[in-house]
Amino acid sequence: MADPSWDLFRTFAFVLREGSLSGAARALGMTQPSVARHIDALEAAVGAKLFVRSQRGLSPTDRGLALRPHAESLVATSAALMRAASGTEDVSGTVRITASEVVAAEHLPPILAQLRRAHPGLSIELAPSNAVTDLLQRQADIAVRMVAPAQQALVARKVGAVTVGFHARRDYLAARGTPRTMDELLTHDLIGMDTETPAIRAVLQRYPGLTRDAFALRVDSDLAQLAAIRAGYGIGFCQVEIARREPDLVRVAPDLFSLEFPLWIAMHEDLRGGARYRAVFDALAEGLGRVGG
Question: Has this prediction a pTM greater than 0.85?
Answer without folding.
Answer: no
